[in-house]
Structure formats: structure tokens, C-alpha cells
Prior knowledge:
This is Bifunctional metallophosphatase/5'-nucleotidase. By secondary structure, the chain is an alpha/beta fold. It is 20% helix and 24% strand.
Amino acid sequence: MSATPQRHRRTRRLTLTALAVTAGAGAMVAAALPAGAASGGGAAKSRTVDVQLLSFNDFHGTLEPPQGSSGNVTERQADGTTKAIPAGGVEYLATSLREARKGHEYSVTAAAGDMIGGSPMLSGLFHDEPSIEALNKLDLDVTGVGNHEFDEGKAELRRMAYGGCHPVEGCFEPGKEFTGSEFKFLAANVTDEKTKRPMMNPTFIWKKGDVKIGFIGVTLEGTADIVTAEGVKGLKFEDEVESINKYAAELNKQGVKSIVALIHEGGLPANGAYNYDCDVPGAGAGISGPIVDIAKNLDPKVDALVTGHTHQAYACTIPDPAGNPRMVTSAASYGRLFTDTTLTYDRQTKDIVRTPVSSPKPVNKVVTRDQPKASDMTELIQRWSELAAPIANRPQGFISADIPGRGSEAPEKPLGDLIADAQLEALAPADKGGAQLALMNPGGIRADLAYKAAGDEGDGVVTYGESYTVQPFNNMMNIVDLTGAQLITALQQQVSGPVNGASPKILQVSKGFTYTLDMTRSGADRIVVDSVKLNGAAIDPAKTYRVAMNEFLAGGGDGFTVLKEHKNKLVGAPDLDCFNAYLGKSTAANPIVPPVADRITVIK
Length: 604
């Protein structure tokens, strides 16, 4: 059962007193209905029919229940306190979606990107084929692409869509060829630089009987800034609003008036609880971030927005440019939630009826773990687990307590320090690059390290599968020359510029590298320059330092453009190899103690 009470929605009828609002904006239109007419029943069809839209986002190949804090959702209680609820796991997500669909003649399931990429080992080891198989079984109809769909490049994304065995590793299961997705990937704002055409379908039209709903899928315009450059070479990522408006007009020309945008860009609610009401004190008052401007500028032809990327939960009503209410939703991440939305379809206008803010809104529902597991998903997990077991269950090291990473909201994360230390230790020897410090991007930390055993390995044991889940991208390490001035600029780019000015990305740093981050200031001034030190000595702007970082950062990813100006690059070992080597020096008697995370002094 969901932690949120079920809302039983009945078909809403338009009456002679219904309000008429702006045409083309999902208008309420005055109409009389035959007496006793019901949605889909009786001798005559009713004027309107309710279509159930189930949606989720940022699944990231999370087939098994996510561990640590990433495996919980926060629920706000009536007395203002909060409660953590264990959630997620595709066995439970399948059960939740299948139960939700019962009794709904018209039901469509959509997603807003990052279905794959950044995945735990069970999926990532097999290039996310297990996740595509699972999403097929979930009866997903359509998803927009997200930035992580490009982790392995555009050719691999097309393989996910259309099938075929891996070009290097071949087929993973004897006698079986990967068949690809049964759902549609949409990429309306991703175009080929040469042909100017979308690299994949921009739109999808879902049909059942006389009901038609169009979907437009886009990823964030800044995708090229947050993925490895080689993976998106030759592609252009265009403005989300312009792209959606363009294809909304095209769908209208095809007679499709009901439109849902699947947008891999999101917002930040004022409260992290999944059941927080972001429409208090007014519509959309409790949410900020990029999705707000997008929502306010999208053509009124678009009736609802399913969003993602920020891994937050919200169900808001942000007025469109015509002033009409429009739903904007996101279901956190990792399959811990799904959103249940009712779209009231007018058969005469072929448009979605925009209900007042006071009417029932979309609701985020928890994928709890106290419900039956879907047996087909259990079989899928067991089958792929058997293939992965010889590698996944291999112990890598030992920890004395939980080491927060992805689940930490602090600027400096204990697991971030640990990863940076591992990179520095691996690449400090002269013949390995002579690194003096290491920098790690926070988005590359995909999980926590949990002390409690996930299987039968024992508490405190870190398996290969768990270390892989933390660092799944297989980024090659680069050791480069940077001047002290460039290092300081890199720190300033954490909290300034077009990419990180509004939403800072704080680099994780190796031991011995320290500085003060003053959040009472603004922009680049938040970095207290004379506090930046290496092993107690002030950074000299004119001096050259050897710095270790992954190839994503060295390519200027996450808005750190100054890092592309490096010199004397040496390519080192993969980041996961560095991490596992560091873990491998620990023992049960001498486990790794979580770093205290005191390298960055934060003034709030």
C-alpha cells in the first residue's frame, strides 16, 4: 500500500454552466451530456473520459532496492515531523504500477529521462540491457531522454532503442540477442549538427479508441556540459522551450490537441518531503529552479509537464502564459515514487480539460516494500544476478560505519573525500603521474557505502558490486598540470557562471587541500582566496601543480571550463580501479573509518 491514501477519481462531466477559458489552452467548454452517460459506458459515449497518466523519472537502472539514504523517501507528518520510508526496487515498482492501473480503461505510462546510465552494477555491468528489459515489463510507453542516456554515446543509446548485441562484448546470454526497448525514446531538442535533424523521434502519439495524447521529450539544454564530450560529439542540445513549442504546434497540425511534455530538467521544492504541497501559499509558490521558467514560457498548447533531473519530488500547479493552471510533476528517483495524474480528455475538442487548482491534483505515491514482489521482476533479477555473481560478490574492502555519498546533502561528502583520497594515492607515484591533489565531481558519486550487509557478505564488507554502484562510469583518470590561478578559478566556478551560479556543484577534494567557502557572499566571491592551501601552504597562483581528476572533469564537465586549459596530460587507471585498490588495503580488523569531512570550511 502507498503511504498516501488512494484518491478515487470519478469521471468529471462538463455541464451547461462550465466555464470557457482561453482556446487552445486545454479549455473548459460548455457542453450538455446525455442523461446517465458514463465514461466509456452506455449506449452513447460521454463527452469526457479520464485518462490515467502514471509517470516516473531518474530510474538509473536501479533494479534492486536502493541502499542507504538513497533507499528512503521522507514523508511529512500531520504534526510537522518527518518519517523515513524505505522505498524502491523494480519488483515493488512493478506491483505498484500494476495495482494503480486496475479499473482504469485508459492508462498511459511515461517517464522523463535517465532511465539508464549511472546504474548499479546489476544493470551497468551489462550496459543496461537488464533495465531496458525491466522497463519493457513495466509497460512503459514512452520516455524523454536525459543526460545519462548519453553516458556511453549516441550509438549505444540507439542500440538501447533498437536492439542488437553489444559491439564489443557481444551477447550476454547464450542464444539471446538484445531486442531493445518496446517503448519510445524521445529527443526533440537533440539534433545532429550536420543534418540539423533530431537524432531520435521528437514526438509520440498515444492512442486508444478515439483518444489521442501527444508526448514531446527533451533533455536539459545543458546536457553537453554534464556528460563526457566524446559521448555527444556531433550533437547539439537546443533550448527546451523553443523545441517543445515547435513540436506542440506540429502536433496540433496533426490534429493532436492534448499534449504532455517529458522534460529532463527540474525544480527544487522548499521542503524535501515527497508529500509537501508546493502550491502553498499559491500556485507554484513552493518550488524554484530551472523548471519554473520553462513552465512559465511553454505554449499553453502543452497541458502537463512531467519532469526530472533534480531527483526531487513535487506535484505543483504553475500557470501557463495564458494564466491557466498546468500540472508540473516529478517523482524523485530510483523508482521510489511514481506520480498518478488524471487527464480529463474532451472528445469533442480533443483537448485536456484544465481543472481549477482546487480540483484533485497529481499525487506522488510511495513504492513501499511491504507489498508483494512482482514475480517476473524477481526472475529477471535472479537471472542477471547469476551472470554477475562471480564479479559482484567479490569482497573489495571493509568499512567501520556508513559512509554517506549520494545521500549526503552537505557540500563536502565523506565518500567524496574517500574517493578523492583513493585517486590521489593511486596517482601520486612519479611513474603514475605525480599527482599532488585530486578533484572529484559530486555527481559522479552515485550511492552511499552502507555498513549493513546487502547480501550474505557480512556487515562492513564492501563488495565489487557495491563499489561499482558508487562509481559506475568507468572514467579514465587524467593527471594534468594546472597553475594555482587555474585551481582557484576552478573553485570559483563551483559557485558561479552559467552552469553553477544558481545551483553550486562543490568538488570533493583530497586530504591536504583545504579552503573556506563563504555562502554569505555571492558568486565567485564565495571562495575565500587566501584560505586555499595545499598541505598548509597557500596556493601560489604562478606555481604549477599536478592534479588528478577523471576525464569528465578534465574535459570541462559540470561547467568547470578552466579545467580544459590543462597541460601535460597523462592518462591513468580507471577511477573504479583506483577506488577498489584503496578499499583493498583495508581489513576486517582494520576497516576504513569514514572521513570527518573537514577539508572545506563552510560559512552559512
